[in-house]
Structures are given as structure tokens and as C-alpha cells.
Amino acid sequence: MLIEKNMILTDVHANNELDLITVLAQQAFKTGCLEDVNEFVAAVLRREKEFSTAFGYGVAIPHGETDAVKSSFLGFCKPLQEILWGPEKTPVSMVFMIGVPKSQKSTLHLKILADLSRHLLDSEFRDKISKSKSSSDIYNLLSLIEKGIKIP
After folding, report:
1. Which stretches make up the PTS EIIA type-2 domain (predicted)?
2. CATH code, 35
């Protein structure tokens, strides 16, 4: 399963994008999706250095390519306050982290990114996630992406 309830984090204390990336990577490690937190964080930061994953609309979608990923995951983090992301200092209030084993990167990573991005372009979907207070509500919304169901 790509989306697990324990990979949905809300009200996270963070000062910067590194804090959020690290918190999500540590959670992925705890759930058994990662073998090495530091290796994954380094891969994500390399990707961020190439081009910021700030998506706009208050969203960032960090991801990285590494063998440290044992099983694919989509994590979500909502910080207590907006974080300025990347060199442009884009305000971010929702972070979606993608982890895919290096062997599946070319196909699965792009599929997840495309499906997630398509949903995030929908202002109603973004608004529902942004206003959701509980991780269960956010999990239910994100599960719809995995099932391929469009939110009415």
C-alpha cells in the first residue's frame, strides 16, 4: 500500500524545509519504508538543489532517488506554520513526500507524481486537505488518489 495512516503528520514543528524532509524520512524509516534516513534525506536534498520541488499553491513534493527506499510510500506533512521553501522562498504549508525504490523509479515515481499533481491542481481538493485537522481525514482524501477515484 502506497499510503499509510502513520505517514500522515499534522501540526509538525519545523523551522525550514530540512526539518520537514527529515521528519517525514524518519517516519518512513519507523514504518519500514526506508533502510537509511540520512541516505534518503541526502538524495532528496540533491534533488532540491537541482530544482526546487515547491509546486505552488502552498505545496511542495520532495522526492529523491536512492536504494535506501525499501517500499514505495507517499507521506504528508502539515507544519504548524508556513515554511519558506527553496531558493525562491516559496511559502509552503503542505508537503507530500514520495519515496520509490530506485529499481521502480522511472515508472512508479512518475505515475505517483502525475496523479498527485493532477489532484493538487484541483483547488477544491487542496482546500479539503488544507482545512482538514485530523490525519484520518487527510488519509481518506489521499487514499482516493491511490484508488484512482476523483473527488466529487
Report:
1. 1-145
2. 3.40.930.10
Domain assignment of residue 47, yes or no: yes
| Domains: count for the chain | 1
Do the domain assignments include residue 152?
Answer: no
Residues 6+ positions from 54 with CB-CB distance below 8 Å: 60, 85, 86, 88, 90, 92
Q: What H or E segment, with its residue span, contains residue 109?
A: none
Section 22-48 average pLDDT: 96
Question: Would you state the cell numbers that stand for residue 10, as one nine-digit string?
Answer: 499534522
Q: 141 with 129: CB under 8 angstroms?
A: yes
pLDDT for residue 62: 96
Domain containing 44 equals 5-147
Q: What is the largest CA-CA distance in the chain?
A: 39
Give the percent of the chain with pLDDT over 90: 70
